[in-house]
Amino acid sequence: MRARDSDQKGGQVMDNLVCNELSTDSLTGLISGTNLCAIRKKCFLDNQLSSRLAQWFLNSDLTTPWLHEHYTNGSVIFVNYGVNRIGTPFNLTYGKGPDSEEKRKYYEDAPRITSQIRAVCEPDEYPIDTVCTRLNELWPEGAKIAEFENKKMFAGIGRITMADHKHSHQPHFDSLPAEFGLARQFSINVYLSVPPSGGELELWNYHPLSPEEISKTDQDMDWRSKLPPSFFVSPEIGELIMFDTRRPHAVKNFDKGSRVTLQVFLGYIPGKPLMLWS
Q: Which residue, 210, 216, 246, 218, is CA-closest to 74?
């Protein structure tokens, strides 16, 4: 099932940690929490659509800072790593009530932003629709856009990373709060633009943390000194990469260019369809 990957760790080619195909077997291996750390599907998008979307994200006046959630004493705080976004992420609603301004904005923005990105893609298919259709074909229980709160969620946030980003300093984790009941959580990134050098995805073959463990994680802890050696995956334009967000991960620095992705999370609950949201 697992192909030899061309990415390296300490000069050694990594075997068995990355699968170069998106299939039922590779999804099963990644979701089961074995040593498979990522799935790659090269040429998922053609270069023309990738370039069209990347230029729209880079030049749009809709960009705002993307804030990553951290936890301090059980409370959510947000950190700016120097990444911009188009689309309202669900993490801004964490800890907010059902009638909050944050919840209202998230669900109001979802169809509006999706419609705008779809228009840029035309006459091609919206890539997140392609992702959902493919997962629905591959997974026994199917796949769908999530409705955690009985409302259709946003799926397909644009992330724009420039050379001054701070993703590489500290490994980080992403997880919905435990109340949503996910057994596992993954990120699917479709790469629209990559820098000429650097910008690799850094992964660790380390056991996934639970949402409770992540919420209690000391963000100032020197994770790099405690983790096993990392390895890097070098994305290509038009490539899809899927990995476990409850494992530590980071993005390597780069000096010039941009790293633009269309990103969606994937949630797994045994016996239910895979769920997509941003």
A: 216
